[in-house]
């Protein structure tokens, strides 16, 4: 009966959060024994990742060496004379894209940077997007806020076609960044079910307060650091475009809704598979624990 209740809770979360509002396909919860998992989560003071414990330095962060798939060699040769992109970004067909999902720092009136916990929303703050390998990316962020964070870094929010191309690689028929059209469990950080049911159990109501609870992205096995899933990399060397966090794109529908793509660690199949995943159910000002972003820019000549 506990597995059945977990399955029901996950379905409720997906409907309540808008994850399944456009697709009513049957869903089986992949979170087992949520009470046992919830017991591992401390409700105490929030932890701040190491990268955010000191004042951030440059607006653009130089990343460490990437693990490159075999097909990436051909991409590198083809773009050997391409215009330059800032550190931490990959050049793809006339644009630059962050290799990793973004984290943010806070800005004061003098543009000085200070740490921001990735477990907290950025409501009422000015923040700047950063990119680095091995850090916790920022969830709890709306499309409006993500757009501003990119602009404060001298970049822009990526468009849906830019995210799609970066995810698939040169093979436009691919559905997953590791190639092909068949999901391979464990290659990307996805399929783990609702964090709300893990943290709140039978008390879950999937309201705005619960969906933005800082504990949701702190349970073991949930949100991963950027680049932690070595196989979740596209032929262009861009990581985590499927799973880990949803990623906002720049488009806004006539009804004011934004779009986020790629799924998150709970699910990357319900609203489309892998690179085809897109959720359209929320306004551009919406955010919850699963919503993140990365930035794009135009290359310098």
Explain the overall architecture.
With 301 residues, this protein is of the alpha+beta class. It has a domain at 61-189 and 223-297: paralog of FGE (formylglycine-generating enzyme). Helices cover 19% and strands 13% of the residues. The chain has helices at residues 2-17, 34-38, 72-78, 143-151, 160-168, 195-200, 208-211, and strands spanning 89-92, 95-98, 103-107, 113-115, 127-130, 156-157, 246-252, 258-261, 278-279, 291-292, 295-297. The strands form 3 sheets. The protein has a 4-stranded antiparallel sheet, sandwiched between helices. It is globular.
Q: Topology, please?
A:
Blueprint: H1 2-17, H2 34-38, H3 72-78, E1 89-92, E2 95-98, E3 103-107, E4 113-115, E5 127-130, H4 143-151, E6 156-157, H5 160-168, H6 195-200, H7 208-211, E7 246-252, E8 258-261, E9 278-279, E10 291-292, E11 295-297
What are the main properties of this structure?
301 residues, alpha+beta, four-stranded antiparallel sheet, 13% strand, globular, disordered N terminus
